[in-house]
Request: fold
Amino acid sequence: MLDIWGQGSIGRSLVPTLMVYGYLAFAFHFTLLTGTTVSVFQFFPQNSSPSWSFWVAFLLPIFFLILAMVTTIFIVKSTLPDEALSGREALGYAMLFSIPLFGVLLAAVGTMIPAATIRTSTGVRAALRRARRSFWFILWRLVTGPTVFSLIFMGVALTLDQQGFASEVPETFAGITVSNAVYQTVAGFLGIFNTALTASIFSMAYTRVEEGRKLQLSS
Reply:
């Protein structure tokens, strides 16, 4: 979502960004849960490619995040005058408001993603059953991990944006500046890092509940 926000055009960047991070999330989960290394830069091994149930599990929480963000933006824009906030600023504040709710939702149904990765019980009911034992385990780690990194980055980015440092993706090569190049690079690395970190949290929670063991991330 940081990449989408930085590019300044949801319609242009939403689908390809979600596809990229979806494949990354699958690769991280599959490697952690099975010990088999897969790469998004080559064909997945047989029976180890993302299934429809994986895409549903991956996109369902994001759908509700986008819904919450759109609702927040509508409320903010209808309350404040148009000149008070730019579109990107309104989107940034909507993300700041929606991310905590997103974390709660992920803590409740996030284990759908590792379950769908290895094609086991993927329903919402099964995820909520697992959440009885994993909700606080997931939520605490999401708050102290991906959420902290994202909020710090967004706060710095909002401050820079208000100071006039452009971070949008340039339309032409001549439009590349130090500020937008650094922003996009950092946002990309943070997105990959947060995806890997979140995958490890979900995978640890899933194996604790379903298999009664601790996931050894070093193995």
Q: What stands out?
A: Confidence is low (pLDDT under 50) at residues 5-9.
